[in-house]
Structures are given as structure tokens and as C-alpha cells.
Amino acid sequence: GQQVMQIPQYQHVQEGEDFTTYCNSSTTLSNIQWYKQRPGGHPVFLIQLVKSGEVKKQKRLTFQFGEAKKNSSLHITATQTTDVGTYFCAGRNSGYSTLTFGKGTMLLVSP
Amino acid sequence: NAGVTQTPKFRILKIGQSMTLQCTQDMNHNYMYWYRQDPGMGLKLIYYSVGAGITDKGEVPNGYNVSRSTTEDFPLRLELAAPSQTSVYFCASSSRDRGLSGANVLTFGAGSRLTVL
How many Å lie between the alpha carbon of B26 and the closest alpha carbon of chain A? Predict the structure, then answer.
């Protein structure tokens, strides 16, 4: 079955440093979504990428979808303590298949 | 507009007991899902439903049952609780309309933390 791998599993940064998490799929994806889960909370949708090579920005967050639609990344510029949480990517094979989640990257930001 | 509501928030079960986790959504979403989350393991799909009267197995369905008699409700039943079912359970829903940019985006409930002793 489809596998979605995410690295790193955990990262601890100082406030102001940059952060990147990478997501790789064993199969070509129709789209990929990113979610954020705060400690003790539930996953919250951040963004969806659909097109090959797509790049989207949300303030300090930059999301990329690879040309082959098998990998994606989330980059946070100048992290803040409010960025703390676990970031999940989730890929979909086709328009109507279910999402497969990566194991997530836990981000800890020290002030 | 409450979104996705899950009850209970916390529950402790003894081995062999049964219980139902309740999930209801008020967004008129066709799709509903049950995930379990274990530490460091991401979200695993247990069951999902594409509409009332239709359910299908996900990645880890063993030990669970679901029903979808209405669009709003999607309860998850554990018949014989086992320690391996200790986890945090999330219910989620999504719309189906391909024309919307937000289609198939999951809205999650707050979660139900279950401990089986």
C-alpha cells in the first residue's frame, strides 16, 4: 500500500532559526495536504498542494510540491514559540481515495 | 456551528469491556473518518464512510465496528477492549464537492483519549 515518510521525526530549534520538514511518498500523489497539531490538540488543516512544482506561502510558512508529485516540504522562516507542534503531511493517490498520513515532525522552539 | 464533536473526551476501560465513541458533525459533510493516534506513529485510518449507509475499512479496522445511519453521526464501537486499543481517537469529516478548493480537507474533532487496563 501507499506509504508516506516524513523526516525528521523531531527537531528542536532556537527561536528565530529556520525549520524544514520533508515528506516522501512511495507512489505519485494527486495532491498533498499539511496539518498542524498543537500539543494536546487535534490536527488542523494548513494547506493543500495539487500541481506539480507548486509553491505556496502562508506568512512565514512555505510549502512545496515536487515536480514528480512524490515529495513535499514545509519550511518555516524565523520560527516563533507559537510554531511549536507536530506537522503532518498527508497524501492522496487519486481524487477520491483516502489520505495517508506521515508520522509527523515534532517541532520544539526554545525562546 | 460546532464542527465535529466527539464524546467522551476521556475514558478508562477494563479489558473485555465494550464502549462506543460518539462523533457528530453539523457541516453536512458526506465523508466521515475514524483515526487512531499512537505516540510517534501518526494517524492510522480505522474506518471511513462516504455517506449514510456506507462504511469501509481503513488500515487498522480489527477490533472496531462502525455504523452510519445518518449524515451527521458516525459512532465507533469497541466490542472487546484490549490494551492495544489504548490510544487517542480522532473523528474527522470532509466534503465531497470536487469543484471546491477546500474539498476533501479534513476537519477533526477534539479527540477521545481511551485507556484500556
Answer: 17
Q: Which of B55, B41, B48, B47 is nearest to B84 (CA)?
A: B41
Query: What is the tens place of the pLDDT at every residue in B6-58?
Result: 999 999 999 999 999 999 999 999 999 999 999 878 899 999 999 999 999 99
pLDDT given at position B40: 79
Which residue does chain A place closest to B42, by CA atoms? A103
Those residues with Cβ within 8 angstroms of residue B54's Cβ, 6 or more apart along the chain or in another chain = B68
CA distances from B26 to A28, B36, B61 (A): 34, 22, 25
- B18 CA to chain A: closest CA distance, Å? 25
pLDDT surpassing 80 at residue A2: no
